[in-house]
């Protein structure tokens, strides 16, 4: 199991490097000098990525890399002649509003790439920042930047969404600007859930709040009833803390006070759908120590612990977002047809 996962990651890495080198060769797109972004996310030192040439990309390169890897708009068509009727049906039936928490300094380095990759598939997409930027655009809410005020940002963002976008979606997801979400899988899972129930879903952490709470970075998604309850009482300071503390734990505490339940999103095989690290970290299990105390499911690792219909990952660097787009939506093993296995088995209701 361990070695399968390692082999898989190793293969993935070689594949990545190979594609990159091929693209470089074909386009004259040279490997640039180290600048801002590490191409590979978290450290698995045993993989010796450095010897394969740990790749760094600066902003311009990323722009070109993105353009090369994923020029196809999901709304128009998939890159292949995939059967996507079901995904299109669910796109209409299970409408998901995504709001991405960002900041003025992250617009060009992160948010713009989120918008160009996974977030295009949201039914409604909002970038919420401390400052309004009409060209991006971002919605500015009156909160100072900085870690100390993430709670206020989330509280005010959900208030804004309750007041302006309640009718635009069936489910309401918060994500960070380094979260990666597979919207088709989100809709598939949610299609088995009831949005009129006071419930929300995400990557379950167990400490601090009695029923636990959901990791902010893995993204969490609220039912309409949850947002309704938040809209009615969530901004009352004697019910929910409005600023300070840890954003996700405070929001979780607030949900508990409002009678909103933490939902179960593991699949029938006990595999996780929301993830608070990037795919490599969950595959290798190269977790920081705190994770074992926090994770409600005991910090499982490896391919067998991750749902085939995984919904989200966190700490995904920009280049990896484009790489994931490539692996998930573009690359295909010939002769296999995906999307039909385990229907109504894996949905989680
Ligand atoms: C607003 O967004 C645009 C487009 O992303 C960007 O070029 C510009 O620098 C931003 N303005 C400010 C004041 O941040
Ligand atoms: C805020 O909550 C408290 C405690 O439940 C309640 O007594 C008060 O009326 C609420 N205030 C508003 C403005 O709803
Ligand atoms: C969570 O849901 C899955 C899928 O329906 C189920 O198999 C599992 O037993 C549930 N876990 C808990 C703790 O209820």
What layout of secondary structure does this protein have?
Elements: H1 2-27, E1 37-38, E2 56-57, H2 59-69, H3 85-93, E3 96-101, H4 107-116, E4 124-129, E5 139-140, H5 150-165, E6 171-176, E7 180-181, H6 183-190, E8 199-201, E9 204-205, E10 213-214, E11 220-223, H7 224-234, H8 247-257, E12 261-262, H9 279-284, H10 290-294, E13 312-313, H11 318-330
Parallel strand pairs: 3-4, 3-6, 4-5, 8-12
Antiparallel strand pairs: 1-2, 6-11, 7-13, 8-11, 9-10
Helix pairs in contact: 2-11, 5-7, 5-8
One 2-acetamido-2-deoxy-beta-D-glucopyranose binds next to loops.
Structure, explained:
It is built from 11 helices and 13 strands. Strands 5-4-3-6-11-8-12 form a 7-stranded mixed beta sheet. A two-stranded antiparallel ribbon has the order 1-2. Helices cover 36% and strands 12% of the residues. The relative contact order is 0.15. The protein folds into 2 domains: 1-30; 98-329, Spore Coat Polysaccharide Biosynthesis Protein SpsA, Chain A (Alpha-Beta Complex), CATH 3.90.550. With 349 residues, the chain is an alpha/beta fold. Residues 236, 238-239 line the site of one 2-acetamido-2-deoxy-beta-D-glucopyranose (NAG).
Question: What would the keywords be for this entry?
Answer:
349 residues; alpha/beta; Spore Coat Polysaccharide Biosynthesis Protein SpsA, Chain A; seven-stranded mixed β-sheet; 13 strands; 12% strand; globular; binds 2-acetamido-2-deoxy-beta-D-glucopyranose
């Amino acid at each position: 199991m361990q070695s399968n996962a390692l082999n898989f990651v190793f293969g993935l890495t070689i594949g990545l490097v190979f594609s990159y080198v091929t693209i470089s060769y074909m386009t004259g797109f040279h490997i640039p000098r180290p600048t801002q972004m590490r191409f590979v996310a978290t450290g698995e030192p045993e993989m010796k990525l450095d010897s394969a040439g740990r790749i760094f990309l600066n902003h311009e390169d990323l722009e070109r890399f993105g353009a090369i890897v994923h020029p196809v708009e999901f709304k128009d068509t998939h890159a292949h002649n995939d059967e996507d009727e079901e995904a299109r049906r669910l796109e209409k039936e299970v409408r998901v509003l995504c709001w991405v928490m960002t900041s003025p300094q992250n617009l060009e380095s992160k948010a713009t790439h989120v918008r160009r990759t996974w977030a295009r598939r949201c039914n409604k997409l909002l970038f919420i920042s401390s400052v309004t930027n009409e060209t991006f655009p971002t919605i500015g809410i009156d909160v100072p930047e900085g870690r100390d005020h993430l709670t206020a940002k989330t509280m005010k963002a959900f208030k804004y969404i309750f007041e302006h976008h309640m009718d635009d979606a069936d489910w309401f997801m918060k994500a960070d600007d380094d979260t990666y979400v597979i919207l088709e899988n989100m809709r598939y899972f949610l299609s088995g859930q009831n949005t009129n129930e006071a419930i929300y879903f995400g990557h379950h952490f167990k400490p601090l709040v009695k029923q636990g709470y959901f990791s902010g970075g893995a993204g969490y998604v609220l039912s309409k009833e949850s947002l309704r309850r938040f809209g009615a009482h969530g901004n009352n300071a004697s019910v929910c803390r409005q600023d300070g503390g840890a954003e996700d734990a405070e929001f979780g505490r607030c949900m508990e006070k409002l009678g909103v339940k933490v939902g179960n999103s593991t699949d029938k095989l006990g595999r996780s759908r929301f993830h608070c690290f990037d795919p490599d970290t969950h595959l290798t299990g190269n977790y920081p120590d705190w994770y074992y105390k926090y994770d409600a499911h005991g910090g499982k690792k490896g391919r067998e612990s991750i749902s085939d219909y995984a919904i989200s990952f966190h700490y995904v660097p920009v280049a990896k977002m484009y790489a994931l787009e490539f692996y998930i939506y573009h690359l295909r093993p010939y002769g296999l047809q995906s999307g039909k296995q385990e229907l109504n088995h894996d949905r989680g209701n």
